[in-house]
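Handout for the seminar on molecular recognition.
Each group receives one record of this type.
Step one: identify the two inputs.
Step two: read the structure output and locate the region that could contact 2-oxoglutaric acid.
Step three: write two sentences on what you found, then compare them with the reference statements printed after the record.
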Amino acid sequence: MDQTTISLKALTSTQVAHYREHGYLSPVNALTAGEAREVRALVESVEAKYDGQWPRAWSLKSHLIFTALDRVVHHPKILDAVEDILGPDILCWSSRWFIKDKNDGGFVSWHQDVPYWGLDVSENIVTAWVAITPATRANGCMKVIPGSQRKLVAHREGVSNNLLLRGQEVAVTVDEKQAVYMALAQGQMSFHHGLMFHGSEESHDDERRLGFAIRYIPTRVKPIDGLPKDSVQLVRGVDRYHHFNLESRPFRDLDPVDVARHKQATDTYHEINRLAVAKHDELIAQGAGARA
Ligand SMILES: O=C(O)CCC(=O)C(=O)O
């Protein structure tokens, strides 16, 4: 989409140009501090029932089973800004919790996202990373390498203590001096492109770091051939392509029907994640990279 011919809803043309050139944008206002506090209260009430930890089974796509998280994924301030980046027809492909506590050892190695998602890597795929608590250098805010979104690179897996599902890490040297740290106030968000090199360090701070990462894609995005059919939620506009099954919104927390559908959706996610890895080398050999 030619961004110069549409009127922007939330971002300035300078912010959109920054995202397009550098692959990230931060900070962007999203939730009010009060809205973020309500989400934190939900998370901590759930954690209190499950040995003080957010259940692993609900790490992904928890917006399908909790109404407060559904509201975040559909929040007009977030979607207006996402629309400025992706255009009017938007799917939420997934969401994911990244939670760190002081000295828990959790970190995220440098990696790119889309190669693990079974989606066309040349597409403009964006994560809105929403700070449910303040994200700072001390508690391990996210860091990015500007401009790294232009090319898909090889990854290795199994880096321990990594918060990522497969412990993946780019198999190239990263110049840490180029890193930009995306500190956020409570309720703010950052955007990063799906091929951006990004990661984060361990927390050494008393302030918990609760990050809710929401993955948005334009409806036109094609899944890679040969994978199980994935599911997504239409959050704005119209889906004229029907590349995915459509997910429904929850009307109350943990409705058994929603919980069963959520399990099916996340099982498919894991299966795609596993199979997509095998396609990496093929894509790298083709010189795959970002179009947007
Ligand atoms: O929360 C973090 O530190 C990393 C987040 C991340 O890897 C992602 O949103 O893809």
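Reference statements: The radius of gyration is 18 Å. The chain has a mean pLDDT of 93.
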